[in-house]
Design a protein that fits this description.
Shape: globular
Mean pLDDT: 93
Structural class: alpha/beta
Radius of gyration: 18 Å
Distance between the termini: 33 Å
Number of strands: 10
Number of helices: 8
Low-confidence stretches: none
Bound molecules: adenosine-5'-diphosphate
Largest sheet: 6 strands, mixed
Strand order of the largest sheet: 6-7-8-3-9-10
Length: 231
């Protein structure tokens, strides 16, 4: 279980997050939904300990700033940071070494295969199309088999096949008891996936709903009901 309590983040004088508190249960797909600039990336980066903030974020009662917890977190950023001189396979092997992974080869091959990257294995980082970079980014983030997976705008730039594979994979990870947090501003992309959605605007939580609580309503209707109410 991930517990965020009273998170406030300021960049200089600009307050990007204001007193956010929420709880994410194990084995669920959670969404941070909100327009550009709402504070989604800032929240994700705070969870993984990349930013300083006020408040506390704990996974099963231990701060996510602690190394033992950080190892359980897998963050897949919106923009891939690849090495121009490493091939696709070398990128994967590099991550395996950094995380000291044993017996990772089957998992590596299955991830590459799933995202149709096997035929691209020998290509260098700077030879990959944007979509392929995005797919490699996903494979790299998932290789260490993290318990808590953070995906920042994961569908952007992916082709329909990769989107379908990613959605299937997210549901498989959930079935394995992993917790997933997706940040996005595209409601359609997560309509079939979400268990809990936290709607953010101007650095504040405007709604925190589970699929059960939303009843028959589509997420889009929940979103517009909340944002129009605010307006
Ligand atoms: P989102 O991911 O929802 O688009 P962000 O978390 O990137 O939102 O940004 C939230 C707010 O914080 C925005 O107003 C943005 O301009 C500001 N912000 C984000 N990163 C920085 C930074 N490094 N320095 C100053 N302001 C920032």
């Amino acid at each position: 279980m991930l517990t965020a309590e009273h998170i406030t983040k300021k960049y200089g004088k600009k307050e990007a997050l204001h007193d956010l508190s929420f709880v994410l249960q194990d084995g669920t797909v959670n969404v941070l939904l909100g327009p550009n600039g709402a504070g989604k990336s800032t929240m994700m980066k705070s969870i993984i300990g990349l930013l300083k903030y006020e408040g506390s974020i704990e996974l099963d009662g231990i701060s996510t700033k602690e190394n033992e917890v950080r190892r359980k977190l897998g963050y897949i950023p919106e923009l891939p940071a690849l090495y121009p001189n490493l091939t696709v396979r070398e990128h994967m092997e590099f991550i395996a070494r950094v995380y000291n992974l044993k017996n990772y080869k089957d998992r590596m091959n299955s991830l590459l295969d799933r995202f149709e990257m096997t035929s691209q294995e020998k290509k260098f980082g700077d030879e990959l199309s944007k979509g392929m970079q995005q797919k490699l980014n996903l494979c790299l983030g998932l290789l260490p088999d993290p318990d808590f997976i953070l995906l920042d705008e994961p569908m952007i730039g992916l082709d329909p096949h990769a989107i379908k594979e990613l959605k299937n994979l997210i549901l498989e990870l959930k079935a394995q008891g992993k917790t997933i947090l997706i940040s996005t501003h595209i409601i359609d992309s997560i309509e079939s996936l979400w268990d809990r959605t936290i709607i953010l605007a101007h650095g504040e939580i405007k709604a925190d709903v589970t699929r059960e609580e939303s009843g028959e309503r589509k997420l889009e209707d929940v979103f517009f009901a909340v944002t129009e109410e605010q307006a």
